[in-house]
Fold this protein.
Amino acid sequence: MAATGPSRSVVFSNRGIICSTSPQACSTGIMVLAEGGNAFDAAIAVAATETVTLPPMCGLGGDVFALLYEASSGKLWGVNGSGAAPTGATPDFYWSKGYSNMPLNGPLAVSVPGEVDAWETIVSRFCTRSLKELMQPAIGYAEEGFPISPKIGSSFTSAVKPLSLYPSTSAVLMKNGRGYRGGDLLVQKDLARSLRLVAEGGPEEFYRGDLARRMVKALRDAGGLFTEEDFANHATEVYEPPISTTYRGHTVYQVRPPSQGFVMLEILNLMEGYDLGSLGHNTAEAVHLMVEAKKLAFEDRNRHAGDPRFVDWPLERFISKEYAEERRRDIDPSRVSQAAVAVPEADGDTSYFCVADGQGNCVSFIHSLSQSFGSRFLAEGTGINFNNRAGRGFSLEQGHANIIAPGKRTIHTLNCYMVFKDGEPVILGGTPGGDFQVQANPQVVSNLLDHGMEAQDAVDAPRWLSFPSGDPENIDKPFVVQMEPGFSQETRAGLESMGHRTAYLDPASSKVQVIVRDPESGLLHGASDPRGDGHAAAL
């Protein structure tokens, strides 16, 4: 049973598919493919357009993680476009200001944006078009405006108070003292100018040019800790191969830390020890085992994971089959591991999209400002709103693996995956949703591989969220299983009889995009989540 009412039809193509939560971005990417561009060209055009059309979710001030499969070489590459904490960002500084947890708003919550450098890194290695050419549609949407989609409009109207924190932000992202609504035209002239500067000057302008100096000055004038060197020293990491595990005869790849993508792999390893197909889809028995697996994986994440450049922790052990066998002993198939009460979790606003072309190239791409509208601080005159990744990700707990430090990258909720069979990609997918991401992704993979669902059915199916996970603001709260509409009363009652407490989950909490690929025929199956505004577009 779907969680969202009427479903969409799966989209088929053998020439190219794009799944995005932004209709304009989908159209832009399809246009690039139609003009002869490859999947990598289309991905950069989609990403640039989304930074304009999805202001709550992503922007030039955000971060990127991606997986790129290059059919000509048969290689899968990972991209880490996350930025570091600024100079001066020490625990002592925050403690001296009275913080026991990281601030969520303003310049003290910002890390160096990685989006722009990630674009150019991908362009220089994989694309057939220039960054300048691929950014033109995004510039047009910023300069001339676009009508806000309904659910993005809801994000604006629910964020009036935080968008009012800084005059530079409210002047751009509010309309006559109120939030923009679905159907309103949003024009961003300053952002268009910044996009043109990036299109002409690339990362050099954004990280070392006049635009960089203006951004750093705005951040510092508002109390931030950045220096021009913090921006100038940023660099994107490209690596091969990404981390992986196997599941039901398939190889599942994820992006490397500081992404928490390894949590998905650990959850899958734990799940593989149970015959979920025989237990049935979304039965109490199956959901219980998956929830308990999630708890164990996040326990490892919260105790040990940090920036690998700063913290030595056993990543390869956590994603090994041997470790999963050990940890599975801590799961009681008939009883919850902890008592729980119902509490809400903070959302993570992010955008995930995927692209596959007719030549076999595939892109799984996620980018974000972290919480809705990021830090809510926009550098006046630039149109650039900054992430709050440092605020949402770092700890101020003495001795914590993820405690903030200058030049350190926080552990990221951002992650994306690809699934391979016999050396070729067969599934690419992901979702926004903060710590929900690495919980929703295994559920979708299980729908496809354990239960044999078609792509759109796997996306539509109701999902659960085990709260809390890794957000420092909520980490010490008790457990609850939040469930979308569509779960049976029998499943809810069964979970509660095992000791779980259940609660309602808003279906908008995640917006999955999936492409399933038949390597023999080249047929692509595109599925876009009806929980969002976007769609799957085919060439």
User: Anything to note?
Assistant: The chain is about 35% helix and 20% strand. The mean pLDDT is 94.
